[in-house]
Amino acid sequence: MSLFHATVRVTPRPGLLDPEGKAIHHALESLGYDGVGEVRVGKAITLEVEAASRDEALARVDEMCRKLLANPVTEDYRIELSEEEGGTP
Amino acid sequence: MSLFHATVRVTPRPGLLDPEGKAIHHALESLGYDGVGEVRVGKAITLEVEAASRDEALARVDEMCRKLLANPVTEDYRIELSEEEGGTP
Questions:
Q1: Inter-chain touch A47–B36, beta carbons under 8 Å
Q2: What pLDDT does A81 receive?
Q3: Which domain holds residue A63?
Q4: Which residues of B touch A31 (CB under 8 A)?
Q5: Which of A43, A58, A65, B59 has the smallest number of CB atoms closer than 10 Å to its CB?
């Protein structure tokens, strides 16, 4: 088994309202920042997963995203995976 | 002026409690996922910024992070910057 380090980026789907992004945009304007376009706020979840192979790790994290980490109706997700050095083979 | 696309990753500092990460870890265990290590939840904020150069865009976004986007006591941040095609030079 090796240890994989996964980062899941969960973002609101394009076109859907993002109230937190709107609030940040408004606050930046209040602070005097002009020329700031659309602001969107998503989540970046990092987790460590044990798996026999990279493919297995990716499949497990993808399943976690569909079951728990992302809302399939309102959010998109993207998984970045890297293998830790010194795993137990 | 060119349009730059910035992604700011804001993460809780190592060693600080991350209740949202703990909750996700617990929920994953309840769903039967063993072998999941530490889970940490951060924010991924994407924004578009107009600036004359890449350096200026980076400096502006860094200032935004220090003033608004990240809490310097409890959070770290990292900025990724890319230039949009077809900006107005």
A1: yes
A2: 95
A3: 2-83
A4: 64, 67-68
A5: B59
